[in-house]
Amino acid sequence: MARIIAIAAPIAIIAVLGVGGVAVLSALKPEPEKAEEARIGLNVFAEKVRKGDLQITVEAQGEVRPRREIIVAPQISGRIAYVSPDFIDGGFIKQGQLLVRVEAADYELAVVRARSGVASAEQGLTREIAEAELAQQDIEDLGITNVSPLARREPQLAQARAALDAAKAQLKDAELALERTAVYAPFSGRVWERDVDIGQVVATGQSLGRIFANDVVEVSLPLDDEEMGRLGLPLAFAASETQPGPKVDFSAVVGGVERHWTGEVVRTAAAVNSQTRQINVIAELKDPYGKGADNGAPMAPGLFVNAVIEGKTIPDVLIAPRAALRGDDRIFIGNADEGTLSIRTVDLIYSDTDGAYVRSGIEPGEFAITSPIQAAFDGMNVTVMERQPDGTIKTYEPTEDTSDDKETEETAMRLSSAKGASE
To answer: Which pTM was predicted?
Structure first.
């Protein structure tokens, strides 16, 4: 028995020392350093959401037309004897100005003949009046009581009066025809085109040319129902002093220079177009050749113009870049500090090339992501980049997590304690 204990005791001591040594060495062995994993995040461009007022506008196109335009035509026939030097293509004319005169000789002779007829009719009436007075005197002298109207010459007297009235009417007609040998401008404006010249024989109603008034021009702008609602215009709108129409900015390239003119909506068309389902909004520009011109460049009839109609103003809306809008009501927001993406559903009011205007869903100062992202999800790692006004790009690095540093520090403290205990 003593021999067994003598053999087992050294083995047990060696085993205890071996196990204890392994434990001490394991405790003193430093943990392997963990390689710092590179953070994977998608670089995205973003712009800050801002707050401002929304001026709603609607764009349309149309052709400029004069509000008043007529074909100049004579009311009589004859040979052209005079044409005003202003009655030429593009000429300026004034109200009451003589444009064309037809030879008046035939019509002057007609007036002379008509006056002669009036004089003859007056003479006949005078004679009939005298004869009727004589007949009445004879009847009284004879004491006749039952006398017919014919004996009193009443029918003859009525016929003479009618003949005088007819002669005067013929004279008036001849004088009117003589007056119509001269064609005057009914309003101030410009000549669109002229169709006749001196020596040409014209018939009644034949076109002498076209003129238009230059006080007001109109543009018919077709809009759909959604655009009408955006402007707040009813179908039966007519501008008044108490309810003026929206302002309109007209623009077109004239002579290689982009010109702008400011008009206003004055009314809407009476019905919706059955083919396009649109309604025409009529906008006017006053004095297009004077005060309404752009540095002397008029908004002339026939010009095709772009129009921007100003609608109502909505104050204090959230404005994000148009490229940040995903679909109809989503915007991707980049959290610059955390380096994550957040998908927001917004209450969209309106969007155009200048931005997306929303009521809620985002906050001022947040970064709206404009870069295209496929398969985006909430919490996706991103690195926000912002383009500065000077063209440089500012990158927002996420704030580093210090939890790994704390764990390393605690491990080092444990190793130091174990080493002191072994010593």
So the answer is: 0.64
Q: What rounded mean pLDDT belongs to the chain? A: 85
More confident residue, 37 or 348: 348
pLDDT digits (tens, 9 = 90+) for 153-200: 778 888 888 999 999 999 999 999 999 999 999 999 999 999 999 999
Mean pLDDT, to the nearest integer, of 352-377? 90
pLDDT grade for 54, boundaries at 50, 70 and 90: confident
Q: What is the radius of gyration, based on Cα positions, of the chain?
A: 50
Report residue 414 as tokens.
């444990």
Q: Please give the C-alpha separations between residue 187 and each of 15, 87, 97, 399, 423, in angstroms, as whole numbers.
A: 127, 13, 9, 77, 118
